[in-house]
Please model this.
Amino acid sequence: MENVNQTAIDSASTVFEKVGEDYIGSKSRFGDILIGAPYSGAFVKTYANERKDVLVIPQTIEYTAFLHNEEMKKVATHGQAPIVSSQARRDEIVEQAKADVERLKDNNRRLRTFNISLEVNRKDRSVEAIAKRPKSNKAFYGIAKAAPDDCFNVHIGKAIALRRALGLAVPDEYLNAPQPTEVRVGDVVRSTVDKSKKYVIAKGEKAWSDGMAGLSSMAAKYGRIIDDSREEVGGE
Model:
């Protein structure tokens, strides 16, 4: 039985292993799953329905040997889900969204089903996806807009909008991503004292430019993060 299980794991494109209430990504041939990261049952179900060769391993001691992460082995043995911070979970969802968008764009480009375009409106805090059939005027649209109290992230927005344009289910993770808790370079923060003012968090000399603020500034310490896309700084 063990040989059969290992053969199944070796042949699978993606492997999730149930640990507590979460499913831990332990193998990803396509690179769109973070190894050692926890995913919800809803996400795994959607992911498995849209892809081939996805293996989900139930939580049993005999399977813990296949966990790649040593800490996850310990967690599985005790039957407890790992503790993941809200910021770490958001970071994971952002990376998941980036990979999702690239995969969907690549699939449509390769299969020539749709020409994909994405338009970002930062003032409106929204993203519009357009899926146009080649050599046709027929097009499908999808829009994602951040709620007034939510932090806007262009990568999550692109994933939501594109999935809506293509008629695909939108994972709950995208719609209910945790709000950021850690201010980083490239984030846009709004002053809690004067809500008409917002600053881009920067480092070095840029931190003292107009409209910029340093990581050690009052704006970074007390401001509210309203955009953590960080495209201009490569996510650093």
